[in-house]
Write a structure and sequence with these properties.
Length: about 450
Amino acid sequence: MSLIYKLTEIIDDCRTEYQQLKEEIAEGYIRTFKIEEVYGESSLAEKNILAWGDNLEWMKYLCFENQVYGKVKLIYADPPFFSKADYKMQVKIHSKGAEGTVKVKQTVYTDTWNEGIEAYLRMICIRLLVMRDLLTEDGCIFMHLDWHVVHYVKILMDEIFGMDNFVNEIVWNYKSGGTSSRHFARKHDTLLFYGKSSQYYFQAQKEKSYNRGFKPYRFKGVEEFQDETGWYTLVNMKDVWQMDMVGRTSSERTGYATQKPELLLERILKSCTKAGDLCADFFGGSGTLAATADKMGRNWITCDIGKSAAAGIKKRVLQKKASFIVLRESFNAESMSDVQVQIKKQDEKYSAELKSYHLKEEYINTFGEKERELIHKLIHTDSLSLIDYWSIDFNFDGKIHKPQCVMIREKESLEKYTEGISATGMIQACSTDVFGNVLYKTFKYAME
């Protein structure tokens, strides 16, 4: 049977699955996510959430909690593109030793889909059904894809959101990638823009439209402007957007393979949200939605199942001094690392100092031969070069890590010492290495 005939079956099956999911939630959904970390002011942190885990389970959790059900103003979805490829990121390790700055490739996610395009479309379809219910009545969704499957996903979205609620097919045109001698260069992605209803919020943005010959028209009632290029008018923005990808030397570059530029998200947020609105990205990736939303005064929810993605998002928003909470899906995962932290008491203060770091052999063996040799050498010569950032909670309550001190690496520089006052007698250190491995260590002291 051809795929076009399978689409009806996919939609019907996913609707049935979604009804079962809603019944499961109504009967008392068991929590699979728990709060592990809080950064910044607690009252502000509650408005921004980073979740590490499966995005469908996370959306089920949000529906069960009922705090954001029907309250998300904008969803930006940037799922895998069905590209049949594995995506790696270059992890930069800055060592003060003889190694200097080295790079290690790490797989961040796979987009291979051994069961074929039908399995991919089922994955997208069930999630779209849940996303629709999370949106406000005047909310909207942007689905970011490319030539591989955007035409099939539009059919799914027409069924789920309604053809009448389709707003725009936006073409993001860029310079990078896509060259071949067998076809025209593939230089664009496609964003499908739908409202939940006809009442979706939208504020048209303006762009320059240069006059012919760059000369003034002097039409009556038409306001004209001039810049170094020539004369222009301001018109409503078109649905073809020309902007560059994140360049190798860009200050916002994280190293994540499919990172999207903040300018792209700024344009979407300006058009479809206001300050204080709640935005969500359930395929968090490099964290561009969270970073941009925080910068623009929007509240945000983001999620990713990959540990390197979740760790990268956390670092990115920490660098922006954001207040947020971190939730993690409950699963039994053995720690792949160990960190030595020396805690000392001096008068009324405690000090914490990083001493060494170690990765388990079974984890190191997941890398290639050259990478394994490099990691072994770094562990023996400069093990702390593997730490990307760490934090200390001097007043750990036994449940949630609420650090007073956060130390983030800047190339070769990482502050390894900090101090503070403990009112609880419990101190917890949380370290995150360059590969996304997170480790908590708790120290208990008798209070005098």
